[in-house]
Amino acid sequence: MIQPFSPPRVRGLEIVTGLHPGKEALMAIKTRDEYLASLKKLRPNVHKFSEKIDDVTTHPATRRVVESHARAYDGANDPGRSSLFTTPSVLTGEKIHRHNSLMQSAEDVTFNSKFKREMYRLTGTCTGALCAGWNGMNTMWAVTQEVDGALGTDYHERLRQWILRAESEGWTIAGALTDAKGNRSLKASQQPDLDTNLRIADLRENGIVLRGAKLMICGVAASNEIFLLPGTAYGEGDKDFAVACAVPRDVQGLTIVETRRPSDTREQEEGFDLPTETGITQAYLIFEDVFVPQERVFLCREFAYTGKIIQIFTAIYRACIGACVAGQGDVMIGAAVLMARANGIPARTFSSKFVEMAVNNETTFTMGVGSIALGSRHPSGIWIPDSLTAHANKIHVATLPYETKRLCQEIGGGIVETGCFPSYRDFMDARYGPLVQKYIKAGACSPEARARAARLTEWLTLGAGVPGCMHGGGSPDGARLVVRSLTPMEKYAAMAKKLAGISEEIPEPGK
Q: What is the distance in angstroms between the CA of the first residue and the CA of the last residue of the chain?
């Protein structure tokens, strides 16, 4: 069995002066260059198209996702944006990157939403390693306190020490929940291959050994660390799958396989065929006997708490994900304005469509903020949004952004949506390029400006700029189940019965 730590017991969110002895000097806001240097130091274990990527900061398959995340470090060092991208640590009082912070109040979680919306405005895409890992550590801050209080473990102190290091080193942290799952009709312990869900393969005196996989994990190539959480609630028979821990992105035994997205065929293209210097990648994380030392383990077979992990994580995540799609919706409005003008049509012609797009954006953003405002503080100190409203927001996130994309395509025209558009190389060809440009020109702007606006719109609505609206952060059907379970239908029926002056019972008919 893993032996408990000897450091102090649960301490909550009190202010702690200083870090570990000798580490105070590390506390600083990291720059872009320092962030990039930290990735270059990691062991190469990211693969794509059967190639090991030696440097994720420069390789065509990963450099754009790194650039997206680097812009958060630019924001932290920008006097005009630093109040959004940084915050005082509740553990030390020192200034830290906001994506490493513990969120104590509704205002803190609302800043999470504002942060996400701003990142989409800066990148046009998801920055998952500034999101799920941040959420995961806040979730486990609450759960580890509960586990320690009930079982006498020391997970909370382990997590506190890990967070102190994350703050001091300004880590970018991917979060991994989704397992391969296997046959969806079988529990994890019933799968023919147990490795379809990440599991504890061995318990050692000084740590645990993991086998299995986490799939479709955002921003891994741009991360320093990966925060692992259970993908669902488990019972006693599945206790080996009840694990939460953090591993370095380059930990021995971990193989990362980058997945293919719609824009991948253009990775080697030039110019506007890849319309931005940003992007998002997802990955399969394959764990082959990965050793995790006990100081990095925050849950080990305490299966009864896995449901609480899912409950808290999804409440925070689904409250804030509305800001993600709102941010990209903001960029889509801008792209549609450019396309209208590049096509030679005044943008005001589409005023009603722009209003619809704006309403969609503000619906998901403000419903998320509303769920935050309706939330409450956990005894550990973190703020948890209202689950009913947060999950209802996820359902909107799985529908409204697609309407925004449709409107963006409708305004942009066939040059955006049909895919019938010459490549950059053909656009620039010495023989027929001038003729291609001649027939691309429409409005007062140059052919290249229209081409760039078209490619951006295509990227935002059809390509790699599309966030995981439908299944990012979980299935909308899962959210509907939560909404159904939390909606007090009998209470509402009693209200209606009283208002109608009905004294008799109206029973539920049998099947």
A: 50
Beta strands in 276-363 (DSSP E): 282-293, 297-300
427, part of any domain: yes
The 3-state DSSP class for residue 35 equals: helix
Assigned domain for 29 exists:
no
Total tally of structural domains belonging to the chain = 1
CA angle 128, 129, 132 (to 5 degrees): 70
Mean of the pLDDT values across residues 414-435?
Answer: 91
Residue 346 in any domain: the answer is yes
Domain containing 438 equals 308-489
Q: The domain that contains 406 carries what CATH number?
A: 1.20.140.10
Q: Which residues pair with 282 in a beta bridge?
A: 218
Report which secondary-structure segment, H or E, holds 215.
strand 207-218
Q: What is the pLDDT of residues 15-66, one digit of tens each?
A: 333 333 334 334 479 999 999 999 999 999 999 999 999 999 999 999 999 9
Per the domain annotation, does 16 fall within a domain?
Answer: no
pLDDT tens by residue, 444-491: 999 999 999 999 998 888 876 666 676 676 778 788 888 888 888 889
Q: What angle do CA 113, 387, 323 make, to 5 degrees?
A: 20
